[in-house]
Amino acid sequence: MFRPSTSQNNSITIYIDDEAIQAVAGESVAAILLKQGITAVHSAPDKAARGPYCMMGVCFDCMVECEDGRSEQACQLYAEEGMKVYLPVTKQTGART
Amino acid sequence: MNAALHYDLIIIGAGPAGMSAAIYASKNDMTVLVLDDQPAGGGQVYRHVMQNAAAQNKAQFLGSDYWSGHKLADEFTRSSASLWPESRVWQITKEREVFFSQKGKAHRAQAGAILIATGAMERPMPITGWTLPGVMTIGAAQTMLKTSHSGVDGALFVGSGPLFYLTIWQYLNAGFDIKAVIDTAPGKMSLLHYFWALPALLQPSMLIKGLKWRSEIRRKTHYISGATAVSISGDSQAEALSFTDASGKQHRLEAEHIFLHQGVVPSINLTMATELEHRWCPRQLCWHPKTDIFGESSVQQIFVAGDGMGIAGAAAAISSGKIAAMRITAKARGTSSLNAVFQMVRQVQKMAIRPFLDYAFKPADEWLVPHDENAIICRCESLTKADITKAITLGVSGPNQLKSFSRAGMGRCQGRMCGLTIQKMITDHNSQSDDKTGYYRLRPPIRPLTVGELAALADDTPTS
Amino acid sequence: MTQNYDAIIVGGGLIGLSTAYGLVRRGHSCLVLDASDTDFRAARGNFGLVWVQGKGTGFSAYADWTMRSSELWPELRDELQEQNGQSLGLEQEGGLHICLSQAEFDSRKESLDLLRSHQNGRFSYEMLDRKALLDMQPDLGPDVVGGSWCPHDGHVNPLYLLRSLHDCLLKKGGSVIVDAKVSAITYQQSLFDVTSTQGRFYAPRLILAAGLGNRTLAPMVGLEQPVRPQKGHILVTQKTDKLIKLPMTQLRQTAEGSIMIGDSKEEVGFDISSSADVTAQIASRAQRTLPALKNQHIIRSWAALRVMSPDGNPIYDQSASHPGAYAITCHSGVTLAAAHCFDLASDIEAGCLGIGLQPFSERRFHVPA
Fold first, then answer.
1. Of B6, B245, C42, C172, which is the most buried if we count CB atoms within 10 A?
2. Residues in contact with B379: Cβ distance below 8 Å, sequence separation at least 6, in sequence order
3. Residue among C300, C305, C334 with most chain B CBs within 10 A, to mutate
4. Is the interface score ipTM higher than 0.85?
């Protein structure tokens, strides 16, 4: 699991599949997921799990769902207080429910 | 339509090239808009440098090259250029209209000149298992260091190239345990390498730095060179890496996190979707937009600078951004571009090491097209090498017909992850040149935007 | 000079492939000469409707031909799927045309009534008010006043169709040569001599199905094909849950879940660049039709050139000066694929276009008004 090498200012709370997580404001959701040990985020057409790969917006393998139903690249989505995201892979496999 | 935004210069990308162009142009009284994906300037190479500089923990482990970007980013931040952060440019027209979305709202802006400074992305390395969760690029591992000061213990690093060694060196500095480094570069230098090492001597500090990283990595990690036949196995997460070393011995190493790298290539989705002309660069095995010496593309007043015009590194990017800005400013003012020519002389020196690096780390064929028929090539549509081969053997003249036959390149990433692989497969199958094969015909929007965002642009337009 | 093939088909799009496949399945040897990767290629920009309603208003032969093809489609589907196992995703359970104003509704009704009166009742449709429409397609936007429903309509995956035709053509012994640009056609002793960038080929029958390329090719065999390009834009969204029950003239959901949003009509010549103003209009209309589309990502768009004749209807011609030569253009390569494969190929085998195709001759444009 990704771990920080410096002390972190986890000043905000975001919700991943409704589970509260302390996070650094402005950090990308993909980075937050990786630090939680979550590497599988959505499912490919062949139903295989996929997760953050490039962390710079080119691979589109870290798609998450936002509260309003939009899909976003987790690596291009920056955490704000109270943000809620849902992992499409959970819907497919029921892994985190 | 939103109150028409109009700027003398619109720069896409706030990396080294974009920032340096913005600084020069804004100093010379040009109105400048800079659009970037990220919350602040820096690009991938100096990513998060402003935030890191302001933070308590200085992340010194990133090294002096990274921190040298702070001065540039700081000067950029204090310049009169306006940065619209978290903005995704999805279309540019030849009439220099720029369309972009910021936080769910689409905007349009008109520019006198456009500078595309969208940099590079990592070359796809389609090996068996590269789609498994836990497998990421070296660049992704480095981004985690830069933005979150985070890494994993016990990871495997597979690949080669300057960014590969730098990131491993930073990983060691930050105090993470590395399980093994599996170098895919050929173990021995050839005559060609020694030849191109000569101009590289013009940049001795770069050479020395590279050698230092490599020797430190050899000393401090379980280092295996000359690896071939690399594959990753796992069920729903990376579990193990298998490969053959230079002596022919087979290895299997267990790891949940594996980082891959085979060099970087220009990000061409925006330049291609804008229908700029490109040429295939056989030395770097990627497409370069065709430009004049100042970076002006085949479309007047649309310029390209930095790694997006061909891989040359951050120092050269800073210089090429400035050259483009000098030329754009001179054209706007009707003055001489002589200063840009002088700047070019310094540019050449900053690129001296590049041919050596290109030859030393040129990816072998097996990293471009996998041997394994079951390896995935198009990640978005989950298409394997066998799927693509089947479509190619129907008889295709290029990637666009292949796309209609196989759906490859039709997913969200718009071919970024499969384009070069598919091009090579067609080139090899048809025994033709890469220029003949060509690339996907890319079209805007080059970044997904919602139907609602796009529709709002129409609703804002007064009906005539 | 030796005969290489029974027929040469110039053009590897939907018309060329479906006609060639139709000939090959009847036992004729065929060669398809296909264009280069970056040519205009209307077949790759097809929306995928197998569509009857609205086709052939004021040109009843076209309405008949369209209906005939729609009826033959299940047979084509079964035959292709049986050979290569690839599902074409054909659904023919009716289709809708959505009207966003009363004026649109009234004009739609007028044009479909005219069509039905020419069809002796073979063509059926119903105008539906908003309430009736909502029973068929829930979640329509407040601007939707009503629309027309036609039970003959449907849709198919146009790229799977293209690939299946190509694949089945090869399986039955047909040949395709890509990157073959035709520069000259001569005719001697009942044999066509076709010079292309990939070599010279000979056959007693020649079918020109090169879309806009037919403008220059047709005169080589004594025919005229006065077609022009008309640009059409299409947007494609991410794959999503089932939002659209029946295909609509400008909106359909594929079997995989992507939503296709079409399509504009622009007279801009040989230009396939994307215009944000046009795509924004398309998106706006789609969102007014189905507000749930608002948050769907557009992941792909493309523009292609429709092949339009002066009156918008297809042209089928056979040459009097060069017997054995045919020229065909239309912009409904998907809908008409079944008719091309079965009926047209049979006519070409017989050496004469059927009575139903006679009205489609280019000569109709020479009749004094």
1. C42
2. A44, A50, A53, A59, A61, B131, B411, B413, B417, B418
3. C300
4. yes
